[in-house]
Amino acid sequence: MNSPTHQLAISPLEERRGVRVLLARDELTHPELPGNKWRKLKYNLREADRLGHNTLLTFGGAYSNHLAAVAAVGRLTGCRTVGVVRGEELAHRPLNPTLARARADGMELRFIDRATYRRQHEPEVLADLVRETGPAYVLPEGGSNALALPGCAELVAEVRALTDFDVLAVSCGTGGTLAGLLTGLAGQQQALGFAALQSADFLRADIDQLTQQATGRTYANWELRTDYAAGGYARLPPQLRQFIGEFRHRHSILLDPIYTGKMLAGLFDLVEKGHFTRGTTVVAVHTGGLQAWGGFGGEPV
């Protein structure tokens, strides 16, 4: 599959307390494969093709942007896709908009109990799945592996070509995007991650492991915030919905409710609290995921 036409744009948001905040509009990259999802898949798809695989098998929760993206890849390329969903099938009936869209795009959905899902990386669990589905190229949850990092790293060069910055901020689910940005920064400038999960301290070790696998080194120029998850993954408290609605009115840009909305709410709070020195330029990355609004009763008005 050819790379989508890049439409990355830098939108000036505002200046607060002497800190300039810009938004990298990576959600404009492709209408169906926006932002970090395409970047993570790019080199994995090349590897799957090199190995002769025509089936992609991957994992995700009920609102997974990654499952939606892989399903879209299947429809666009003609490859078979299998999505292993966390939780028993009856708990997901009727299918939410994310899973319904994935199935409409041709993805075969397989539901497994949460205990087995947590063991997805174990060889025997993977072997059982592949025996059931047939030969497949296996993508981890969120698409985060060593091959996901080069695509995310390319974003750094694209942003640098558009503007000078001191900090690159991004939301984190599995940590692959932040790990990729770290390899692209190569020790220059700072990276700031905002965990979308309530209990996400494990991400620090996972991010170090990913960069070690991809580049043979770890990095010190980054920080992970775990205090802006807004109640946990796929939770949308009223104050976050209000923030996203007000942001849309102010900037005419829609944020997603799971990742970028939380990240920007946290980022603005840190600015107000004096976390950044005056004169700092922060570029926040809009990673897409707008399809998730279907599971939250629609976009804020």
Automatic annotation (TrEMBL):
The modification N6-(pyridoxal phosphate)lysine is found at K37. Its cofactor is pyridoxal 5'-phosphate. Keywords: Pyridoxal phosphate. PANTHER family: 1-AMINOCYCLOPROPANE-1-CARBOXYLATE DEAMINASE-RELATED. This is 1-aminocyclopropane-1-carboxylate deaminase. The active site is at S64 (nucleophile). InterPro entries: ACCD_DCysDesulf (IPR027278), TrpB-like_PALP (IPR001926), TrpB-like_PALP_sf (IPR036052).
